[in-house]
Amino acid sequence: MSAHDFSFTTIDGKPLDMKSLAGKPVLVVNVASYCGFTPQYTDMQALHETYGPKGLVVLGVPCNDFGAQEPRSDGEIAKFCESMYDVTFPMTSKQKVIGPEAHPLYKWIAAEAGEGAAPKWNFHKYLIGKDGSLQGAWPSRVRPASDEVRTAIEAAL
Fold first, then answer.
1. Residue 80 sits in a domain of what CATH number?
2. What residue stretches are annotated with the Thioredoxin domain (predicted)?
3. Which residues are catalytic?
């Protein structure tokens, strides 16, 4: 199995088959609007603008699993991200990312890297390689535009 075996629904209700992203690295980040890490949307957008033309896909996955910090509907989340952070990278519909009801991609990540790799809070980052393998993971406190994340993205490109 690989990350390419999973699919999402986009925040605007369209199917997003991860197979369609094969050949591109994907930075998957569980996001929330009412979190102290929410300003990381700025870094995510900057990565999208810098590395998107080279093949990187930044994928935001809204979730309400941590501190109930994403209570909004998909439409409200999309409007917030566009108006506050000028987000143009793809976003999924709101998902569970931990526990028995977690989205299958997040269950796969935990199976691949161990339960300790499951998100502990909002803005946990995973880098999926061009081949669909898990290439890296960073906790919330590591900014998406950090040298650590950028170096991994550049290597994956």
1. 3.40.30.10
2. 1-157
3. 35
